[in-house]
């Protein structure tokens, strides 16, 4: 066992039912960890473990030595995981054999391992950042452009590497930057079709709509919600950033109110986290583009992670469906 190769998640997911019982070793990040109680009162952990190429879920019962080790590692911790190949409802769901927590000193001695653990946006981050700044420069209204600049002066470099979500869409390093640039590209293409929408205001709204996520999420290897994220949420946090920046830039009251409204309503539905329904042309426009790119981000990630062996992905919560993976025939 000690001489076994370290397998990545994509390599693990190539296993099939015929490999049942095979043992393996992986170096993984604890992406999500939830303590639960069974109907008989016994405690167990529902754990999502993953690396750059994907993730899988497993259950750790209270009588397992791995139970306390994983609790001590917590979300964002790195573990050496030894398991046995098993499936549950056709999903890879291994039986845990042993877990060892990798401390910071051990991790620092394995730079290649860190690169393999952290999922990164497929597009080059520097190119995305250059394009992002060009969209800011393209805002013609001076105070509006200054407001957007002031927001990013406030949050600094955090925006460039933040994920756009913990799990749902663009949930990886530079994901927030990628998501925002994709939305700006879509807006640039669609704005000529909708003359009722103020182009500067809509573009400004797109660029700042998710900036509260730089405060909502924390963690370098796996993201989790911060104290402020739990108590206030990114919509309110983003509104606060925009209001402060708008006042600093002396943006007129009407435009500032409309920009704040875009941030407060961009989630679309109160059940999805919006503070209010979109009630201006620009807010409706931004909300729809946000939903489009979030959904397509889910699609793109599922397609990237497909290994060519399955016709459908596992059911995706955000899409509420399994995705057909093969490309259309000739």
Give keywords.
330 residues, 2 domains, OB fold (Dihydrolipoamide Acetyltransferase, E2P), alpha+beta
General description of the model:
- It contains 14 helices and nine strands.
- By secondary structure, it is α+β, with helices and mostly antiparallel strands.
- It folds into two domains: about 10-115, OB fold (Dihydrolipoamide Acetyltransferase, E2P), CATH 2.40.50.140; about 125-305, no CATH class.
- The strands form three sheets. The protein has a five-stranded antiparallel β-sheet with strand order 3-2-1-4-7. The chain has a two-stranded antiparallel sheet with strand order 5-6. A two-stranded antiparallel ribbon has the order 8-9.
- Helix 6 (about 140-155) runs parallel beside helix 9 (about 200-210).
- The mean pLDDT is about 90.
The domain tally reads: 2
Distance between the termini: 46 Å
Residue fraction in strands: 15-25%
Q: Which outline best applies?
A: elongated
- Count of alpha/pi helices: 14
**Run of helices and strands:** HEEEHEEEEHHHHHHHHEEHHHH
Q: What is the helical fraction, as a range of percent?
A: 40-55%
**What is the β-strand count?**
9
Largest sheet report: 5 strands, antiparallel
Task: Detail the poorly predicted runs.
Answer: none
What integer value in Å does the Rg equal?
22 Å
With strands numbered from the N-terminus, the spatial order across the biggest sheet is: 3-2-1-4-7
Helices and strands in order:
Blueprint: H1 9-12, E1 23-37, E2 43-51, E3 54-61, H2 65-73, E4 78-84, E5 87-88, E6 91-92, E7 95-102, H3 104-108, H4 111-117, H5 125-137, H6 142-155, H7 158-161, H8 175-190, H9 199-208, H10 213-216, E8 217-218, E9 224-225, H11 227-231, H12 233-248, H13 253-265, H14 281-305
Antiparallel strand pairs: 1-2, 1-4, 2-3, 4-7, 5-6, 8-9
Helix pairs in contact: 5-8, 6-9, 6-12, 8-9, 8-14, 9-13, 9-14, 12-13, 13-14
